[in-house]
Every structure is written in C-alpha cells, then in structure tokens.
Amino acid sequence: MNQGKADIGLIGLAVMGQNLVLNMADHGFTVAVYNRTVSKVDDFIKGPAKGKAIIGAHDLKEFLAQLKRPRRVMLMVKAGDPVDEFIDLLVPLLEKGDIIIDGGNSHYPDSQRRYEALKAKGLLFIGTGISGGEEGARHGPSIMPGGNSEAWAHVKPILQAIAAKSEDGSVCCDWVGEGGAGHYVKMVHNGIEYGDIQLICEAYNLLKNVAGVKEFASIFSGWNKGPLDSYLIEISSQIFSKMDTDGKTLLVDKILDVAGQKGTGKWTAVDALDRGMPLDLISEAVFARCLSALKEERVEVSKHYQAPTKPLISDKEFIEQISHALYASKIISYAQGFMLMKKASEENKWKLNLGSIALMWRGGCIIRSKFLGNIKLAYEKNPTLLSLLVDPFFIGEIIRCIPSWRRVVSEGVLHGIPMPCFSAALSFFDGYRNKNLPANLLQAMRDFFGAHTYERVDKPRGQFFHTNWTGKGGDVSSSTYNA
Questions:
Q1: Where does 354-391 have alpha helices with state H?
Q2: Which pLDDT tens digit goes with each residue over 401-459?
Q3: Is 284 labeled as catalytic in the residue annotation?
Q4: Longest Cα pair distance anywhere in the chain, in angstroms?
Q5: What is the pLDDT of residues 187-240, one digit of tens each?
Q6: Which of 193, 202, 397, 411 is catalytic?
Q7: Which residues pair with 130 in a beta bridge?
Q8: Which of 186, 266, 330, 376 is catalytic?
Q9: Of 143, 164, 238, 256, which residue is the least packed, with the fewest Cβ within 10 Å?
C-alpha cells in the first residue's frame, strides 16, 4: 500500500480554502488540494502556492493517493447539498478510520446527521466552525471543532498550529464536543455577531441623530481603547475614515441602507425558540436586517409620518453614555448566547466547556473582544454559572452602566430612533432581574379561555390548578404541555 506524503488534503479553493492551505503550508504541513473546477488547482499551484509544500490533484483518486493514513480530508465548499455531494463521492474511496472535516458554515443538524451516517460506515467526521474571514484563514482563525472525538488526536496538531493565538499565547482552538457541537457553537457565535453588529449600528445612529456627531472615526477609535475594545469596533473606526472616490464624502454615507444575511443569525433565533430560551436581542438583530430590506416600503411610509422634533444633545457626557449603553447591551448579547449554549449542552449531553469557548473566541474570530477574557474567567471560577449576569465582574459592570443605559434608550425613544437591540437588551435585563412578572395574569387568561391550568404561589411547583372562572364552565382542565 502506497503511503502518501501530504499531512492533510483540502477540497474547495475559494478564498477561505486557499488561505487555509497557505496557512497550513506556512506551519510546516504538506497539503494536497483539489477543486471541482480543475483549472483553479493549476492556477493556485502556479500562483499563490508556488514554491510551497502544496500538491495539486486533478481527480479525487489522485488527490486521496497523496494523503498519509488515516487520510484527513477537509471540505471548504458551500454549505448544504455540495457538502453531501462530496461526502458521497469520497465515501467509496475511503477506508475505515479516515477522517472527513467540514470547515464550511454548515447548519449543526446537518453535521449531526453526517456524523452519525459516517460513524455507521466506520469513518470519522469533524464539523468545525471557522471564524475570521479571509485574513483569519490566512494568519490564524478561531476554530471550533466537534464531531467524532476519535478523530481529534489526528487533526489537533494541524488545527491548533494554524489557529489564532490570544494575547497570552493560548490557542483559539479546542475540542468542543460530539456530533454537531462544533457547528452549533459557530452558529451561536454568528448569532452574537449579528447582535454585536446591530448594536454598533444603533450606537452610530444615536451618535448621528441624537448627539449630532459628524466625525465618528475618533470616537470609535477611542472606544476601542477601553472596555469596548474589539475587532468590530476597530473596523468601524476604519470604515469611518474611508472616503469615497470623490474625496469629499465618507464611503459609508454612499452605501444603501439594506442589509444582507446568510441565515446563521436566523438559525440561532429559531433554535432559541425551539429550546424556549429568550434570545430576544439576537432575534431583533435578525429582524432589523429584514426590516432594512423593505427599503421601498420604508420610503413610502416615511412620507406619512414626521419624526419627533427634539433638540440635539451635543455634549460629551451623552456620547460617553452611549458607549456605556452599548457595552451593557453587548454584555446582554453574550449572556444570552452563553445561556443558549448551556441549555443546548444539557439537552444534547455535549458537556460544552463554556470557558474554553470564550477563549476560542478571544482571537481570530469576528466577535473577538477584550471582555471575552472576563467571560473565560467567569466560567473558570464557576463552570456551572447560572448566567454571566450573576458573575461578580459583570454585576459590577452592569450596575455601573445602568444610569447611562436607561437615559440613552429613553432619549432615543423620544427622538424617534429605532433601537431594537438596545431596547431588547434593557427589556431583557429588567425582566431577568425582576422576581415578579405579570405572567400570572397571562396564565389566568389561558386558564379562562382554554382551561390550560396554572400554578399557585402558595403551593409547590409542579402542582397545577384550574378554575371555573364564570361559573358556567366545567371543572375539566386541558392536559398540561409546553411547546
């Protein structure tokens, strides 16, 4: 049996695939590459890969013959059917113990299904989230592998070598868990990313239309030196420095206010609904993109309503308060995301290490930020932490920001500024910190019209009661169930 010389093979030479291959080669690994459009292989070998330990192949048999055993095959192709199509092509050519790694943006139920199907065939599967975009892929992304734990030892040296390193040298890649766990964590990462981006956009809108700010780059650059230090704040400051080709107008002012999305934020929101978890901030971030897409309708509706006429609040204190409101809302976004992962881990028996996940996001990825170090510490101190909002560090940060947070949301409402995520964050916080909510009336109404029963404050949890509210109904209650 011929033994190949490539440590790993990668299929899919789009921008992420090419940069991951170059990253692997830079770290001393020999990589075999294949692409369905074979000309891309030749162009890559003659171009960016020239002189590196990268081997091109023109068909799958030639490609697999280049690989050391167990053969490690990484797919960097479009999520969905293309992944299944390549797996179907590979399976007859692979042997027991070979490993397929899906590094695309796959939905975690698909990864769970592939893990189980390949396990039945004696093949090992890893579904790994990769975050950091083109630059991260080339110089160090955040990598979130999950799937068949037997495969981890065979890919760990490669994935950890090419992954980002945090400021203290820690590797932003570690084993997440079985089945679809890796892509699940990446999905939640993307949901938090949706929330982060929307919160920053709302802060920009408040700065512009309530505080009357005209120069944003220095404000965001300043914010990036404090608690808000993060990749997204950093690139926002750079965006606000980029002029259009006319040299007179900021490029961002020429961009149409219609947001795109690839669906990963929606997956997070739907999963939260399925698990009964209140991820209202991330859900509102998704809906904000949907609302932005209704451009023509918004233009028409705007003709019928005047914005409130309120004087601008052009003082430095209010600008600082916006930063505090943004920071508090960001904490809520991450708190919700980690609550969802905790619930999913319990339901799927994944045993997710939430502190380790915070570390994986500390460098390389889109949501990398300073306070992920504090999240890591919170879960290191207490792995069973109820939520970030009961950790002493975050309690102190939220309490410090509350006055600014309330004022900013109030002023935004009075000025007619849409703040779906600022508002959702504050509303969630007020609901979560409140031991009594008006759901008692809600349950009374449900029992009144549908005999859905209720629990009582003076009886143990789990005992359900029904009342004949009108005297005309019966005493038979509906069965208790939860959607």
A1: 354-360, 372-381
A2: 999 999 999 999 999 999 999 999 999 999 999 999 999 999 999 999 999 999 999 99
A3: no
A4: 87
A5: 999 999 999 999 999 999 999 999 999 999 999 999 999 999 999 999 999 999
A6: 193
A7: 143
A8: 186
A9: 256
